[in-house]
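ZP: hey, is the glutamic acid complex queued? I don't see it on the tracker
AM: it wasn't, my bad. submitting now with these inputs:
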Amino acid sequence: MCGIIGIIGKSEVTPLLMEALKRLEYRGYDSAGVATLVDGGIERRRAEGKLANLQDLLERQPVSGRIGIGHTRWATHGVPNEKNAHPHATDKAAVVHNGIIENFQELRDDLEAGGRRLASDTDSEVVVHLITRYLEEGLAPEAATAAALRRLQGAFALGIVFAGQHDLMIGARRGSPLAIGFGGGEMYLASDALALAPLTGRIMYLDDGDQAVITGAGATVRDAAGGRVERPV
Ligand code: GLU
């Protein structure tokens, strides 16, 4: 279980995502990646091995954007390579995941029977395809995510961004830690408060089962039963 970072920023987020991933390096990892929104579309850069490889890729193929998610992966399902590195994405959403989706094979079979093509060997990728399926059925991002989470068994912390939604990030956790950071006009999501240390000292820890909707203006949290809850900052 490795590192997650998410930022809704005031300026370009890729350098901030990379700095936060560096602060998560101590946990160990085998690959890394970032996804941002550019003109509403999801842009990804992923690389096997050290963050320096991802940094090199970003120098050759820079990616802009004021909202983004990043991940350092410790592979549990699927070898460490670029295609298995997170974020996983469709044209509608991108997801970073820490943990293990235990029923991923059954979900994958179901998604593939419905005509979806998954690109990786990970357990994690089913999450973004499930969310996409619910978005295509007409659910809004928060409801689509909640519907997908109800299908998942296992342990997870998740960070999700949505195509066309420059001011929206969703975080959710069950069995893996996740914190939200409040900056001056910026908002953060991280698996480990250390990742946020230079960015903000105002941290909210999600409880197990929580799903949080984060915008530049703040965060609203619902518990596993779907009711609005306040968590201390
Ligand atoms: N189980 C996922 C994978 O193998 C996530 C691993 C992690 O927590 O980094 O991609």
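AM: back. The longest strand covers residues 93-101.
ZP: great, adding it to the tracker
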